[in-house]
Design goal:
The protein is mainly beta. The protein is built from three helices and ten strands.
């Protein structure tokens, strides 16, 4: 299923890029930022860190993407991109709500099954890989309010939509395929628990975390700063948030065995951008 999703995602991305290029080429516009510049297109690379804000404590990890961008108006750019992120998290508090969690109660999500019902609790952890394709509009604020602005520095807001697919896994079994002896951890001190868990686990996310549907539409918003280095190079910073109708990006949604959390998970990304303008 994962390979099929990635194949369909890639095909859809190529379709978006070709469609965006065809519609926008009909209205050429000079790229702002350098006196006399004629560049209208950008190939960009974004790389940085990201988190999933959800029900499990997050640990910032890696993410990045590649995009094509066209200067549609003096104050508006349109971007089609593909992005990938690897996100991690781990709790130092016990979670006793495992009776309904098919990834931890011996259900059918995993082979071999992962069953912590006799232990009565776990320390939640996850590693989630996320890939998405998106179409994003960029509102260039300085050029919007200063029509004669031609300096190389730009500030912009972003907003868009796309399709996201993810796979959440958890380190639930040791190298021999046995559940971890979490009952041996008798302290509540977070730093001590973290150290004990690090010594206990093998660091391999071999088991599926709970999920229902791992492909979704999403909405995104963000803020960016960019500086043009001559006619063909740009360097900047971007931050972005992605809203998804799913509470299982971190593999956890249960407050009790019968009650789920109220909020969906949110992805936050931030990083450097490197652009070639032509």
């Amino acid at each position: 299923m994962k390979n099929s999703n990635q194949k369909h995602t890639f095909i859809f991305f190529l379709f978006l890029v070709s469609g965006t290029w065809g519609s926008l080429m009909a209205q050429p516009s000079k790229y702002f930022g350098t006196e006399g510049a004629t560049e209208t297109s950008v190939i960009g690379l974004q790389a940085g860190s990201g988190i999933i804000s959800g029900d499990v404590d997050f640990m910032p990890f890696v993410q990045g993407g590649l995009y094509y961008q066209y200067h549609f108006k003096r104050w508006l750019d349109v971007r089609a991109g593909i992005n990938y992120g690897l996100y991690k998290g781990a709790d130092t508090d016990r979670t006793g709500a495992i009776g309904s969690n098919q990834a931890l109660n011996g259900g059918s999500l995993n082979n071999p099954p992962v069953n912590y019902t006799n232990t009565g609790f776990v320390y939640q952890n996850y590693q989630t890989s996320v890939m998405d394709i998106s179409v994003t509009g960029k509102l260039n604020l300085i050029s919007l309010f200063s029509p004669k602005y031609k300096k190389p520095f730009s500030v912009y807001l972003m907003g868009g939509t796309g399709v996201l697919t993810y796979l959440a896994k958890t380190d639930a079994l040791d190298a021999s395929g046995n559940i971890y002896p979490y009952q041996n951890i008798t302290t509540d001190n977070p730093s001590e628990v973290k150290s004990l868990l690090s010594d206990m686990r093998d660091g391999k996310y071999e088991s599926f975390a709970e999920y229902e549907k791992n492909s979704h539409l999403f909405l995104s918003g963000g803020l960016g700063f960019r500086y043009r280095l001559g006619n063909h190079l740009g360097l900047g910073l971007e931050s972005q948030v992605k809203y998804i109708q799913d509470d299982l990006l971190d593999g956890q949604r249960w407050k009790t065995d019968t009650e789920t959390s109220e909020n969906n998970d949110i992805i936050f990304n931030a990083g450097l951008i490197f652009e070639y303008l032509f």
